[in-house]
Specification:
Layout lengths: L2 E2 L6 E2 L11 H12 L11 H18 L6 H17 L4 H12 L20 H6 L10 H18 L4 H9 L6 H11 L7
Antiparallel strand pairs: 1-2
Length: 194
C-alpha cells in the first residue's frame, strides 16, 4: 500500500479514507476546533508538570534527531504535537506513532490517494471543515491540528475504540494492518512523562 512522497522514497501509508456525510452540528464543531487560533504554547499548572514536559521534550527530541536534524524545527514540531494532542485529548505517543507510519515525519509527504503532510490529511477535509485551501495542509500547525481533530472525531464515533478509530482514519476500518503498525511505531515514542 506504500507510495513515494515528495521528499524521498519512503512509503506513505495513507489509505483511501472516505468522505462521509457529517451532520451540520458535527461539521460546525470540527470547523470551530480547527479554526481556534491559539498558538501552541504550553501552559502548566505547576512546576512539576513543566519539568515533566521538559523531560519529555528532551528525550523525544533526541529520538527524533535523525529524522529532523534541525534543532529549532524539531522543537517547534514536538511542541506543536504536544499542544495539539493535549488540546484534542489524545495520547501523544499514539499520535507520534501515527505520524511515523503515515508520513515518516515528512512535512511534504503526499500519498497515492492525495493525503497530505505529517498526518496525511485528505483534501476533502479542507473543504468540509476548513477554508478550502488544500495547500495549507502542508503547514505544520494546520496539518497537526486537522489530524488531531479528525482522530478525536473518529475516536468519538467509534466510542473510544482506538483500533477502529485508527482504521477509519486510514480508510481501512476493520483491518488490523494499519492499527498494528501505529501501535508498533508508538512504542518507540513511549516516555513516562508523555
Amino acid at each position: 500500500m506504500g507510495v513515494s512522497g515528495l521528499l524521498g522514497t519512503r512509503p506513505v501509508h495513507a489509505g483511501g479514507q472516505l468522505e462521509e456525510p457529517l451532520a451540520d452540528s458535527v461539521r460546525t464543531a470540527l470547523s470551530a476546533a480547527i479554526a481556534h487560533s491559539e498558538p501552541p504554547v504550553p501552559v502548566f499548572a505547576d512546576t512539576e508538570r513543566r519539568l515533566a514536559y521538559l523531560r519529555w521534550l528532551g528525550a523525544t527530541s533526541d529520538r527524533l534527531h535523525r529524522r529532523k536534524p534541525d534543532f529549532q524545527t524539531r522543537i517547534e514540531f514536538l511542541q506543536t504535537v504536544w499542544y495539539e494532542t493535549r488540546r484534542a485529548q489524545l495520547d501523544t505517543t499514539l499520535v507520534l506513532g501515527l505520524i511515523q507510519v503515515e508520513s515518516a515525519f515528512r512535512k511534504f509527504a503526499i500519498s497515492r490517494v492525495g493525503a497530505r503532510g505529517y498526518m496525511q490529511i485528505m483534501p476533502f477535509w479542507a473543504r468540509l471543515i476548513g477554508d478550502g485551501d488544500v495547500s495549507r495542509l502542508f503547514d505544520m500547525r494546520v496539518n497537526l491540528r486537522f489530524g488531531c481533530v479528525i482522530l478525536r472525531h473518529y475516536l468519538d464515533r467509534e466510542r473510544q475504540d482506538t483500533f477502529m478509530a485508527l482504521g477509519r482514519y486510514n480508510g481501512s476500518r476493520g483491518r488490523s494492518e494499519y492499527p498494528n503498525a501505529v501501535y508498533a511505531a508508538a512504542r518507540h515514542w513511549v516516555h513516562p512523562d508523555a
